[in-house]
Amino acid sequence: MGLTDVRRLEDVVAELRARDYRYGGGACSEDIEARLPAAVELLSGTMREPVMVRLCAAVADMYNFAGWTNFDEDHPAAAQAAFARALELAVEGGNDGLRANIHYRTGRLRLHYGAVDAALAEFALGQEAALLAHSELAQAILSANQAWACAKKADVTAAVTHLRHARTEFAAAEGIEPEPWAAFFGATDLAAMIGTVHAELAQVVDVRYGRAGIPALTDAIAGYGPDMARSRSLTVIWLATVHALDGDLDVAAEVGREAVEVVAALRSPRSRQRLRTL
To 10 degrees, what angle do helices 229-245 and 3-23 make? Predict the structure, then answer.
């Protein structure tokens, strides 16, 4: 057992993760589940310590990805089980950056199903791990999602504060090669999160916040190519929602039709669920 074997696992996850972004979790969930048993079996082999550490991270990220695809397919119990196993392996391998990412994804699972306080607890644990990992990008991801959770609680001050932190941390991370599980979070995703937080505040506090978020949502939609179709679909849904809340029903209907078309091409029940609010 050597690094070549570990790299194969890492390449598999990278390939499936790209497919997930483009087509949704349903396009790759069976593949990752089928590959997990053989990957887990590798952990019982004999190898040098550096190889074992990297293997733990690779298998942990496979479970992390399996949790995410289950989440996207609306299988919350299976997603939670996969995230729990991923966290165990990340802790065993001493990988704080990956641990931060797993807490982020677990928090997103909680947030989607309305458990906002539980989501905030996960995001806080993720922030602790991100600080230990000295990863500004991981901190930015967690801060942006803490902002969203606070927006859901109608806590404007906390939401705006966390967004400010996310911008600062993201700027500090520029020029640093991201870990594969965090590489999705570029300038476009940050813009999408800024727009998301404002759109959430528009729903629960005042529609004026939605107007302020329209430029960020528009920038994010322009930045998402076909390789990030699911992220684009979720952002288009928010833009249509904001226009509807603001009374721009013609624009909302036009953008909403686009959202339906994009979502229809995805194998992502989560995206379809997000259409309900619209």
Answer: 30
* Beta carbons of 206 and 246 less than 8 angstroms apart: no
Provide mean pLDDT across the span 66-80: 98
Fill in the amino acid letter for 124.
A
- Asked if residue 52 belongs to a domain, the reply is yes
Is residue 227 one of the residues assigned to a domain? no
DSSP labels for 127-178? HHHHHHTT-HHHHHHHHHHHHHHHHHTT-HHHHHHHHHHHHHHHHHHTTSPP
Domain count along the chain = 1
Does any domain span residue 53?
yes
pTM of the shown model:
0.97
Q: pLDDT tens for residues 162-201? A: 999 999 999 999 999 999 999 999 999 999 999 999 999 9
Neighbours of 12 (CB within 10 A): 17
